[in-house]
């Protein structure tokens, strides 16, 4: 009889632990998905694009949101927007012939596209820069705004 009681106790305890772990993993899934979707490889070819304002439907993004640059469907740079100055930057990496992990990254003269992850809404948006500046290794352009309409 003690054996049955112990087995029932263990089964219910494991179920509660499993449920608790699932609840914790669901909280982390959202941030892990963002980091996975906005993951990129570092290259020695890089440009830093600075933005004075990043706005979703008239509201500035906050420190829990993310901004990413893409070439087609390849993320070529991203950053959580936890900056303390007026202009914040995003590194945008280019293709480097000696690093196969950067195949398909930016080449001189190409235009990056941008996406914003809004953590409060758990949504991804396509964002439009106020100026289109072609990518080139080593540049540091400042763009007035990156906007989701």
Query: How much helicity do the residues have?
Result: 10-25%
Structural class: alpha+beta
Rg measurement, Å: 21 Å
CATH superfamily of the largest domain: Carboxypeptidase-like, regulatory domain
Report on this model:
The protein has 149 residues and is an alpha+beta fold. It has 2 domains: 1-37; 39-148, Sandwich (Immunoglobulin-like). 24% of the residues lie in helices and 35% in strands. It contains 1 helix and 8 strands, in the order αββββββββ. It has one helix at 2-37, and strands at 46-56, 59-60, 66-71, 74-80, 88-93, 113-118, 123-129, 142-148. Strands 1, 2, 3, 4, 5, 6, 7 and 8 form an 8-stranded mixed sheet that branches. Strand 3 and strand 4 (74-80) form a beta hairpin. The radius of gyration is 21 Å and the shape is globular. The N and C termini lie far apart (67 Å). 25% of the residues are buried.
Q: Topology of this structure?
A:
Elements: H1 2-37, E1 46-56, E2 59-60, E3 66-71, E4 74-80, E5 88-93, E6 113-118, E7 123-129, E8 142-148
Parallel strand pairs: 1-8
Antiparallel strand pairs: 1-2, 1-5, 3-4, 3-6, 6-7, 7-8
